[in-house]
Design a protein that fits this description.
Helix content is 90%, strand content 0%. With 67 residues, the chain is an all-alpha fold. Keywords: Membrane, Transmembrane, Transmembrane helix.
C-alpha cells in the first residue's frame, strides 16, 4: 500500500476515540454532549416554527373578522 493511504486509514480508525477523548477534556461526557445538542436542535426547531404559527394565527383572525 502507499504511504498516504495508510495514514488516511489509520487516521480514520483513530478519529472516534480521539473525539470522545476531546469531549472528556472539555469537561463533558458524551451523554452531556448529546443532551446539549438535542436541546439546541429543539430550540432551533421551535424558533423556526413560531413565526409560521404566528402568521397562520394572524391569517385566521383576519379571515374570521372579514367573514
Amino acid at each position: 500500500m502507499s504511504q498516504p493511504f495508510e495514514v488516511t486509514t489509520e487516521t480514520a480508525k483513530a478519529a472516534p476515540p480521539a473525539v470522545v477523548s476531546l469531549m472528556h477534556v472539555g469537561g463533558m461526557t458524551p451523554a452531556d454532549w448529546v443532551t446539549v445538542l438535542t436541546l439546541l436542535y429543539l430550540a432551533l426547531q421551535i424558533g423556526l416554527l413560531i413565526p409560521r404559527y404566528v402568521s397562520r394565527l394572524r391569517e385566521y383572525w383576519e379571515n374570521r373578522r372579514g367573514s
